[in-house]
Amino acid sequence: MNIMAELAIIFGICLVSEGISALLPIALPASVISMLVLLALLLAGIVKPRHIDRVCRFLVANMAFFFVAPCAGIIEHVESLLACLLPFLCAAILTTPLVYAATAWSIQLMLRARRRKESHHA
Amino acid sequence: MLEAMLSSPFFGLGLTCAAWCVGVFLEKKTGFLLCNPMLIATIVVVAVLAVFQIPYADYLQGSSMLTLMLSPVTAVLALNVYNQRRLLGEYFLPVIVGCLVGTLTSVGSVLLLCKVMSVDSAMTSALLPKSVTTAIAIAISENLGGIPGVTAAAVVIAGVVGAIFAPAFAKLFHVTDPVAEGVAIGACSHALGTAKALEIGTLQGAMSSVSLCICGILTSILVVFF
């Protein structure tokens, strides 16, 4: 598909999502809504993967590039960051293994229960 | 003349692209995980602005165009989920419950930490979405009145910690199931972790990319209630 047509689909979805975000009573980010809208369109078969393939591949492969600009915004907030450096580092580093363990254990428990049930039936 | 050049959007666009290339070059050259292109590029941009005392507003002229692309970048993650729909169907309930538990743990532990250390609300809002992928985290942080730069920094740190220590975490917490391992990596360290999960195994990588999408959605819904 024409690359401009692919872009038009993606930008169109983002535009509609901005509208939906403004209508929603909760503050769900428009970017998350655009992901859900695209997923719904894909599942419904209205948008096929080949319609957006090239743009998707480019954006996913270069995803981190688009984060540099917002990251650089930290220069405006160095003081407030330094003021609470300790809680910042604790939140960013210490909670990571905690999230890992909680997620992995809950899934392992459920999968084990399911397998036990299946072997019971068999 | 210099003033006209600096206030042109091409300054911000050019600087960001050049800084990115420096990051990619260093990553290729060293192969060191901390030489993450995003981290290096951010440091280069900040250094250039600080050393030459260029106002952030000048940089913003061009960089705001790139920030605009965060929405399309997030949208295309849907294709990841779509491509894994069969696998997701098979493990639907455990994956959703796992992501919910992970999201609750992440948001809850940050809230508790900020309360104990009496951190102000702008900083707390900036830290709340630290476990989800940058595009979603920044949108959540902005919505809550947090500082996007701080959010982005916290997200990168969480991602790098997860990406480096994911194999160690699996041993430490006795995680043997590949589905559990993949979802857990995606839940705690989003896209950076997913890159590592793909190295560990295809199933882990797939589950991690699904989990980073679901956790992003769950976090953005969950923080509304805080």
UniProtKB/TrEMBL annotation, chain A:
It comes from the Bacteria. It is a multi-pass membrane protein. Pfam families: LrgA. The chain crosses the membrane at residues 29-47, 59-75, 81-107. Keywords: Cell membrane, Membrane, Transmembrane, Transmembrane helix. The keyword Zinc-finger does not apply. GO terms for cellular component: plasma membrane. It is found in: Cell membrane. The keyword Iron-sulfur does not apply. This is CidA/LrgA family protein.
